[in-house]
Amino acid sequence: xxxxxxxxxxxxxxxxxxxxxxxxxxxILYSAVTAETxxxxxxxxxxxxxxxxxxxxxxxxxxxxxxxxxxxxxxxIYIGCIILLVWVLLFGKSAGGSRRWLALGxxxxxxxxxxxxxxxxxxxxxxxxxxxxxGFTLRELFRPAIxxxxxxxxxLKQPDLGTAGLLLLIxxxxxxxxxxxxRSFIYLLVSAAAVVPMVWFxxxxxxxxxxxxxxxxxxxxxxxxxxxxxSKIAIGSGMxxxxxxxxxxxxxxxxxxxxxxxFIFSVLAEEWGFVGSVxxxxxxxxxxxxxxxxxxxxxxxxxxxxxxxxxxxxxxxxIINIGMTMGLMPVVGVPLPFVSYGGSSVLTTAxxxxxxxxxxxxxxxxx
Length: 367
Description:
Layout: H1 5-8, H2 12-34, H3 42-64, H4 68-91, E1 93-95, E2 98-104, E3 107-109, H5 111-130, H6 142-156, H7 161-178, H8 182-199, H9 205-215, H10 226-238, H11 249-252, H12 264-297, H13 301-325, H14 343-361
Antiparallel strand pairs: 1-2, 2-3
Helix pairs in contact: 2-3, 2-12, 3-14, 4-5, 4-6, 5-6, 5-7, 5-13, 5-14, 6-7, 7-13, 10-12, 12-13, 13-14
């Protein structure tokens, strides 16, 4: 029987905020693809509309069932995700030197995006059962480390450095939230500092080039540094109020690369200026603080930790994507939630919103 209290506690504010961000993203994407030369790529916009509609359905499904079921089915979800990641490496669709997509008829799905949700559920299950005041020791962190590094390695092999790194940031945020024993935390910091220089030799040539160009874009202004330089020009030319909707010259003249994916914030900044950019950033900040507020109000460990994971996903994606466009971070291909083009990204974002709403509207069951 339907519980009427679900309507009473339904989080209309979060739904409205997510819808506002999503509609703003569609406007920005429309501008990014219609201003392109020699011909508008409206096919991209229409595909995003279809994905957005499907994502809304996924969001409704996600908040329709009790999130506690994820605690029961979390292991199956995780294993299924690992199988998909292995399947991608063996039979996935290759594009641009990467093998990241599974072709399902007319659509392509990126399992690495769904891996974010799977790792959140897996870690929330583990941490909610074994959390304690003194914090987790290194021995107790071994299992969550294995749970994290299996999908991390598989995603890195595609290769997809951005999503793999994001997976570590999400897992790290959740781990710090549940607390690490002080001695273990210091040991982890020292170990990480020692390992970082070794990682350089494991990177591919194009990944090393991205890092070097991040430090100095002028090293290769017509090659790897071109993206960052043109992005900065687009952002700066928007000034206070922007050039106006559909009037961005950097985008229209095709100077701005990857304008509908990695560098869509540059389109926003050029056309809407500082004012428009700040408004969109404030909307994301509201979403992040809304998530933290839900986590604080939840009285059940699994729900609290799960919400922290979802909120950290939004936080890091916003920080990294905007940082890339401004030259503050290396270009690693992390999408801006609900704004950048990408069906799997929109789907994952909608599922994340659905999880936040799920925990929020069922808080009365925990009293």
